[in-house]
Amino acid sequence: MPTKNRPGSKRKPMTRSRRRSKQKKQRRGPVMRFRFGQLILIWIFSLILCFAAYLYNRNFHPEKDVFLKSNDTETVDSAVDSEVESLPDETPDTGEPSADPAASAETPTDVPNEEAAEETPAAPTKINPVPESAPQPPDYLTRCAFLGETNIYNLGQEGMLQTFNVYASENLSLNNYTKEYVQLGEDTTIRILSAINSANCPTYLMFGTETLAKNPPDQSADQFDSLLTSVIATAPEATIFVLSIPPVTEDAEKADPPLLNSDIDSYNSKLLDLCNKYNVYYVDVNTALKNNEGKLDRLLALEDGIHLTPEAGRMLLDYVLTHVPVE
Question: Chain-centre distance of CA 142, in angstroms?
């Protein structure tokens, strides 16, 4: 049987106002609505306020500007310094020691420098000319490099030095050592500075004989200075020996052009000064080859009176072997 509607149970029609009130009851919290354009306006307005605040502080409070503070401080300091310098010294001169605390607080000059103490100690000063020593065995020469002109070249050609120990040629001189090639082995030529690159063996230099006939001793010594500094830079670990150049005969002094023993002595003296300047060894073979007249004996010279015979070459090498310092 159909159920009869009870009195008062009749449903009311759903109107628009009832629908809205029902939707409001279903919402749990407030809903805020923003438009994108409003957000942009708020951001622009904030940016304008910040920029205006910066301009205000920059113009009315420049001491707060971090970029200008250092310059202003330097200006103030310099102004104070200039004022202090301009003030006269009002302290009377009583002859008594100054009681200025700043003067008493000065750092003493004898305080050791920690940085200097950490530096590598300097090499001991070489004794020049090298004094006589116990003779070295002949194979000492095979552990050395010999750089030079015709006299050194002839020592290799005569078999008194191994060819691979000799870096010399008949055309080499102080005028062209940066350009002239020397023979290294049978098929190889090389410049002398390239040949000794990073060498750490005893290195003997004898240059100047081929130059003094054309250039004065001062100029020749300047050229050797350039060569020596280049060798030191190229082979900093090498022990360097500078050989004085040999004397010449009386005939060579009368030749055209002449090569004078007085110029040779002056040049060798300048070599000694260079060796002391750069703290390298100086071996005075010139003295060992002079006769009582201070010249080279004709029997020890080739026909030109300048270059050494094999006998004189052996005398030169014997002198080298007996003048090797103990390090």
Answer: 32
- Cβ neighbours for 141, distance < 8 A, ≥ 6 positions apart: 161, 162, 165, 317, 320, 321
Residue 233, class by beta-carbon neighbours within 10 Å (0-12 exposed, 13-18 middle, 19+ buried)? exposed
**Which pTM value belongs to this model?**
0.64
CB 294, CB 261: distance < 8 Å: yes
**Closest to 309 in 3D by CA, of 170, 119, 94, 155:** 155
Q: What is the pLDDT of residues 36-66, one digit of tens each?
A: 777 788 888 888 888 777 676 666 555 444 3
Distance CA 191, CA 179 (A): 7
Superfamily (CATH) of domain 138-321: SGNH hydrolase (3.40.50.1110)
Cis peptide before 257 (omega within 30 of 0): yes
Q: Is the dihedral of CA 159, 165, 171, 173 positive or negative?
A: negative
Place of tokens 């060579």: 252
